[in-house]
């Protein structure tokens, strides 16, 4: 089945332009492009239907409808590709998969560029966090316990390095919890501790 995904920001009211000539079921969210794809109500439903094998193509007006964050857009395209779902972007004239199911070389190049940008961003985040942890320890700012745990923020981050890795890669709280087999509450506590480090910069 073909599907159409539409995203409008909270400032946009009219979705008719994005629906012109579209086929199949329409999934649409009224949300900022900075909200991760899988954290949007109907985008999450779209992913679930794709995982269930109900969809073989998702059409969007433009790639930025998937998101404004390069890392999250990359992850979304990769997930659809792994599921054998073609992402068709009207504005860019791009199909991520060829008719035989192979990845489109042009789309593959795009994903490669996004991967490089994501890796640079990931390394920058890790370096900033290492510096933040060292500075926090030196200044004694993180000796207290994090809410809901007997560990200090720094110890919490050290203990859950796998969660930190996924968050650094741009994964959402929900997706990180699934990948690391931890509760969303634990992931949220780790994220809060990481955010606290940024405030020391």
UniProtKB/TrEMBL annotation:
Q: Which UniProt keywords apply?
A: DNA integration, DNA recombination, DNA-binding
**Protein origin, superkingdom:** Bacteria
Enzyme active site? 9 (o-(5'-phospho-dna)-serine intermediate)
Q: Which segments constitute the Resolvase/invertase-type recombinase catalytic domain?
A: 1-140
Report the CDD domains cross-referenced here: SR_ResInv
Task: Set out the biological process GO terms recorded for this chain's protein.
Answer: DNA integration
Leader peptide range in chain numbering: none
Q: Which GO terms describe its molecular function?
A: DNA binding; DNA strand exchange activity
Q: Which family does it belong to?
A: Belongs to the site-specific recombinase resolvase family.
What is the protein name stated in its UniProt record? Site-specific DNA recombinase
State the taxonomy lineage: Bacteria, Pseudomonadati, Balneolota, Balneolia, Balneolales
């Amino acid at each position: 089945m073909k599907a159409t995904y539409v995203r409008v920001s909270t400032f946009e009211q009219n979705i008719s332009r994005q629906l012109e000539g579209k086929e199949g079921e329409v999934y649409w969210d009224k949300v900022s492009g900075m909200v991760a794809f899988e954290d949007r109500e109907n985008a999450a439903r779209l992913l679930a239907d794709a995982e269930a094998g109900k969809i073989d193509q998702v059409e969007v007006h433009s790639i930025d409808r998937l998101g404004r964050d390069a890392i999250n857009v990359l992850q979304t395209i990769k997930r659809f590709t792994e599921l054998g779902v073609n992402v068709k972007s009207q504005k860019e004239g791009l199909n991520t998969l060829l008719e035989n199911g192979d990845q489109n070389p042009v789309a593959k190049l795009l994903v490669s560029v996004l991967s490089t940008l994501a890796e640079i961003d990931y390394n920058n985040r890790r370096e900033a966090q290492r510096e933040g942890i060292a500075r926090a320890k030196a200044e004694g700012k993180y000796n207290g316990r994090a809410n809901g745990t007997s560990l200090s923020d720094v110890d919490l981050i050290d203990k859950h390095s796998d969660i930190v890795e996924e968050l650094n890669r741009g994964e959402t709280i929900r997706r990180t919890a699934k990948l690391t087999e931890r509760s969303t509450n634990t992931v949220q506590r780790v994220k809060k501790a990481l955010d606290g480090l940024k405030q020391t910069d």
